[in-house]
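Suppose a classmate hands you a notebook page containing two proteins, each written out with its sequence and a corresponding row of structure tokens. How would you begin to make sense of it? This section walks through that situation. The first entry is reproduced here exactly as it would appear on such a page.
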Amino acid sequence: MKSTLRRTWAEIDLDAIRHNYEVLRRRIGEDVKFLGVVKADAYGHGAVHVARTLQELGADYLGVSSLDEAMELRANGIVMPILILGHTPADQVPNLITNNITQAVTCLAKAHEYNEAAARFGARVRVHIKVDTGMSRLGVLCAGRHFDTGVNGIVDSCNMPNLEVEGIFTHFAVADETDADDVDFTKRQLELFKAAVSAVEQRLGRRIAIRHCANTGAVALYPETYMDMVRPGLLLYGCGEFASELGLRPAMTLKAMINTIKIYDEGTDISYGRMFRTVSPTRIGVIPYGYADGFFRCLSNRCSIMTAAGPAPQRGRICMDMSMIDLSGLPEVGVGDEVEIFGPHNPVETLAQLAGTIPYELVCAVSKRVPRVYFKNGIEIDRELLLRF
């Protein structure tokens, strides 16, 4: 539904998505396919609008985490290929086939399950086989003593009559890290993946069409990993440590409106826990943005919110629905003024560093009660609120 309130809202710049796609497309070259990762509601940016933008731009694939995420895109007119990177129960194979959705296969047992389910349905299901080269999460084990067994399992999967094996992929654990040990680990992951793919293809006597391993960190730092397709995630949204050096633009700006201002006497305790006490008369503004909206409580008394006149330190403990900011040195800022929680003037990377986390977590944490307002060509084109009425 559409929101009519100006409380707290996230402005999503689809022109920034376009810009970032075009920058990354030039970086990888026209011969490499582009999978845009839109899982977790496009990292909080709105999967449907981001997917529509990528479809218009000619991206090759979309990546999601679950069948539900894929079905949301199909229900909203997205017809381009979609790869589910996570688990799907075998009883949902008919839905994968009917809706032309590609599924990751993460072990031989699941290959058997999907093959049998597709056979019962009387059709083939398109899959990409995942190789675990060091992430130690999902994928066929191929490291060390597991190499021959892993390769055999992948070959067996490729020969199953009701699996259409279109791709093979792996995921890097530390491609975004630059110390020597992590660089060495990433390179060893790449070499193991290439060795496994080579052994599989040699046994099959044919090439697997789409070989891919480059996530956000690898797209930024390791061009040798691009292979047949790349999978940028946070880069697409203009966030993270590599975004500025690549000339990318943040697509989300999180804003709120100051709804109350009071001047408190010296010695006044502010908010829960009395963790901030004024040392002089202090002008405190209240913004309707709290931890239920995605403002991490651990940032209490540690960050600033950007006003039109400059940064305003956050004061006191962050509440569920509200937080307080110090406007003592900003007399021109008043009730009804907009503030930027994060965006181009208050980078999300700064907040993430203060919170001891990564930008992914902050943008994904923007809750469903925060309306997303979409802009294209500088004009608002849609406004949605993910609440049930």
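The notebook's second entry, a different protein, reads as follows.
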Amino acid sequence: MELKKIKDLVALGSGDIFGSVLSAIFWFYLATQIEPNEYGEIHWFIGIASIFSYIALFGTVNTITVYTAKGIKIQSALYTISLIASLVLSLIIIIIFPAFYQIDSAVLMIAYVINTLAIGNLLGTKSFTQYSKYVFIQKGLTLGLGLGFFYLFGYESILFALGLSYVFYIKRIINVFKETKIDFGLIKQKIGFITNNYVMFIVAGFSGQIDKIIIAPLLGFTLLGNYSLALQAISIMMIISSVSYKYLLPQDATNTHNSNFKIWVIIISAIIALIGIFIGPYLIENYFTEYIDSKIAIQVMSIAVIPGTISLILQSEFLGNEKSKIVLIGNLSSLIVLIISTIVLGLNFGIFGLGISVVIANISRMLIFLFFKNLMRENNARS
């Protein structure tokens, strides 16, 4: 059993780790080729596409992962609703955004939806080797298509290139439709968990993007570019935590215990945070001189890796037991804290304040999750 766990984790982690390396090469290299304001502009529109995709995804990755793991054939119904919603929202994007970004943002938004639906199925079936292949190919296409489009058509074309990198996930979507019939009755039976998960997913998604949406009009694209580079660094530091969450969710959904593994993940996250605090400034000063303002943000935001990791571990436990309301409360509270602190601290302390806001938001979510976990433990002890 332990050997199988290790094999599954290696299969799952290899795709995410190597894929993230390819993605990091692309984004960090791109940062050396364009100005911070252009880098910020790209990430602002990525934020827009991401937020619209969250709204479209009634079938969230967590919902699909949990029900697929439990053998409940609900995927096709959730896919149908999500895909129809993505097409409607793509038309809204085309109507309201500037001409040179409208099609690109719409394509990227639909691509995000297709990717999320496919990933949920791969994780739910515990097809970790296939998952890794999909991720690695997509990140390879991000690097190849991203740089190709950049040099051929300029930085404005990168959104479209990113959207194209997800095209092969369509095959997985088609296979799911072939394997399971569309049964909206199942959605009615599970509407409570699905709805809670959907709202939770939107809240969590907004938490990952709303800061970018706020920063651009308040503080400009240049500061957003520096902030986005810092976020890229933090995303690399969260790879192991993210891989662990994807591994743990289907395990927790089937009541498989992994206590020692979870402890080691937290220890490793603390080590990674220290590396970010001390090594991050050196890398910025020597390789990203145009983004020197991101140095302090990386140092501060590295601290968030620890509470962020603990939150993911607890979130997996709650969702695996269909306690989505708790996750919703934690993520909603974190979102409110992030919005308020981004505006207040950003306006008063610039990028240093933005870094602090990320840390505060992650700590607030962790504390709420810990409160509910302790409450559940006490209730179980009484019963």
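A careful reader of the second entry would note: The radius of gyration is 20 Å.
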